Amino acid sequence: MKILKSEFARNVLTLMTGNSIALAIPVLISPILTRLYTPDDFGVYALYMSLVAVFAVMATGRYEAAILLPEDEGDAHTLSGISLLLTIITSLLVFIIILIFNQQITTWLGDPNISLWLYLLPVSMFLLGIFNTLNSWFNRQKEYRWIASGKVFQSGFTSAGQLGFGLGKSGGGGLIISTIAGQLAAVVVLFSGFRKYWRAFRGQLNSERIKILASRYREFPTYSVAGAVVNSLAFNLTYILISALFSSTVLGFYALVYRVLATPSAVFGSAVSQVYFEQASSEKKKSGNSRESFRKTLKRLIMLGVPVFLLLFLIVRYLFTFIFGEEWATAGIYAQILLPFFLVRFTSASLSVTMTVFEKLKQALVIHSAIILATLIIFLLSYWQQWDFRFFLSVYSIVLSGLYAVFLFYYYRLSKG
User: Please, are residues 127 and 180 in contact by the beta-carbon 8 Å criterion?
Assistant: First the structure.
């Protein structure tokens, strides 16, 4: 009962309430969407979102991750300004690149259906850059209700749009446009909460302070961006290569698994990670380490994660068939294969911000590089040995689970200061 009354539990509960609602909406409508959209539609959507994920981490120069670190509130305001300024610049640059090289990019991706939707990539990039910046600001202020509200509105607008466009048989484009509408809704909500900070925020925006703090936290764009891009590629490159090496139908099954299982667990982990980040940062400022915060968070993650994932492992194949229909039974098999990996990654990734707390950004780049290297090796072996997708997925799950377990041990060593 003491755990439930702690500040940590209250903060996680606030985020989890919003996250649970935000996640429940798309999960609940998934059985409807699988009847309104084809696996190919999900494939185009998955490809677009993969590209967004890769480019969005570059939008802010990762300065949004530094907002929680300075003790001075004015410095945090300035870092927020740097993050927003870079979002505008990088989004415009990506738009120009797409405008000039759209045909070449489409050819390289191997899917002509993505060509038109590439022009919307900078829009998603811009909105996510703003969202991530404001998200970090409210995390610093411990105003988790705004973060939760933004996610609920994003999920609601996205899901409503996808249902509407699905009824109109708009294809993958309907999924994409609806997602952008949801991103915009989330930004509007967060900005409404940020208004009370606006005067103080503007007062800290001067060229001298921007130069000083941009230089002070230069490791974030230098190393953290590269690490985040590599990490994003390690996950999102999988979508591109599955489509290229197997088929768009297989990608559709795979994307559904991530939609209803991996994404919810990742978002739950993100909620825990945000609170842990604030607590670990505070503990480090006081004692020079974050060992106690790490130990308590790891214990909670294990106590919550193991029973849930074990139960899912036993019933997930039957759940997919029952909920989505016989034609999606293959996705249930893929889900069961991936669940052990989801558990290990959920635990490890939730505590990976330990590297940011201790500003070990070079090491983060090494870790992310190891993930993408392992992923590429598995894909190459699959191509050379002509593995079927089920065997490929089993190897992928085992190897990546081992890697994330090693990373978790490193985070623990790091938390000791």
Answer: yes
Take residue 117 and report the two structure tokens written for it. 């939707």
How far apart CA 319 and CA 333 sit, in angstroms, is 11
Alpha-carbon distance 13 to 4, whole Å? 9
- Give the rounded percent of residues in the chain with a pLDDT score beyond 70: 95
pLDDT(392) > 90: yes
Q: Which residues contact 345 (CB under 8 A, 6 or more apart)?
A: 400, 401, 404
Closest CA to 157 of 183, 182, 190: 182
Q: pLDDT band at 4, cuts 50/70/90?
A: very low
CA distances from residue 12 to 140, 171, 198, 341 in whole angstroms, order as listed: 14, 37, 27, 23
Question: What pTM did the predictor assign?
Answer: 0.76
Question: What CA–CA distances, in Å, run from 174 to 37, 126, 251, 341?
Answer: 9, 20, 18, 31
Q: Which two tokens stand for residue 173?
A: 């484009």
